[in-house]
Amino acid sequence: MSFSELNIDIFRAINDLGKEYTMFNPVVHFLAEYMIYVLALGLLVYWFTRTTKNRLMVIYAVISFVIARVLGKIAGSLYSNYQPFAELPHVNKLIEHEIDNSFPSDHTILFFSIGFLIFLFHKKTGWLWLVLALAVGISRIWAGVHYPFDVAAGALLGMLTALFVFWTAPKLSFINKLLAFYEKGEQRILPSKHKSDDKSKNF
């Protein structure tokens, strides 16, 4: 069996679940299309905890996504394929999507580059974001807009980038200086009884 055949077979196994278990399609549709707003809300909540650790985590997460997105574009220029619904017959398509290069999955890059970064900061609870990232990746296959290889490549890019940023960003002192400058201004506008903690030094 060739790689292409394996990719299609795994896609069919997941995508056909939507035909057999139609009651789950609304949930999958939400995961594939709208979970991005939950992720954005989660980052906002972390930011407004007003702790240095969480704010650095959010900054690193954004940096991680930007780098992963650039790498994804490079990968997409080296290898490409259209969405399954555009190439295969009888696909269970749950969301509208333009026909373009679906490799790698941008949604998967987004969720894994940020979700894995959160996990590295908060291992006790961060695994929930990894579960969410995996669910989103699977939902993109179930919804008919990505092949398993698109999702796997996006997840790998996202996690490797998050790990790289987690290791290297703390060495960039200007990030801490910019955050400190922002927090001084914020403290004047929205005074807080408790100053930002210094836990970021110990993660």
TrEMBL record:
| Cited Pfam families | PAP2 (PF01569)
Please list the GO terms describing molecular function.
undecaprenyl-diphosphatase activity
- The residue ranges crossing the membrane are 27-49, 56-82, 102-120, 127-145, 151-169
Q: What class of enzyme is it?
A: hydrolase
Listed A to Z, the keywords are: Hydrolase, Membrane, Transmembrane, Transmembrane helix
Matching entries from CDD domains are given as: PAP2_BcrC_like
What are its E.C. numbers? 3.6.1.27
> SMART domains from the xrefs?
acidPPc (SM00014)
- Domain (Phosphatidic acid phosphatase type 2/haloperoxidase) ranges: 62-166
Name of the protein in its database record: Undecaprenyl-diphosphate phosphatase
- From which organism does this entry originate? Bacillus sonorensis
